[in-house]
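FORM 7B: Structural annotation worksheet

SECTION A. Query
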Amino acid sequence: MAYETYNQIAWSDGTPISSDRLQQMSTNSELIKTTTEGYAKGVLKYAEIGSNTADIANATEVDVISFTGLTVGSSRWIRFTFNTPGIKIDDGDEEENQYHFRLVEGTAYASGRIAEWNFGIPDSNGMGAKQIAGGSYTVFLDSSATGIDNKTYTIFVKRSAGTNVYKVLGNPTSTTQLFAEDCGAS
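SECTION B. Predicted structure
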């Protein structure tokens, strides 16, 4: 157990501060720091949007949400989570068209892909508007021996083909969110 060398220090009124007592306090503090250093540190970065994206009418990638300035020490597990109410397709779509959300390191769709979540739509023969892909999407990333220094992370949405209008949903009570969480030492 990590606390085997931890020693209780008893203090009472009039106890002199000796070099031995100060040394033991210092040793205990360092032991606690070393022991807890690997624990999770919680949410590091967070972004939230409470409105729909603009209408999207083609197969071009569109950035949905991002945050900048993520810095993480070396050898840490980072969990990225993207929460979305989903995608609304206004006039149906061809069932062979596929959609995906992509998390990248940077601000360009083609740069540093970390994860991609793909999904299709049910048969849309005359069904009109529909909503798909709502939920929570998560991926873990090891910050490696070099860590992460002041990076930007972006979620994009893209459709494989088609021109029917769609949008990523969001409103004040059901927001689109992206966050990074430190989950402890790797």
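SECTION C. Observations
The chain has a mean pLDDT of 88. The helical segments are 19-36.

SECTION D. Sign-off
Analyst initials: ____
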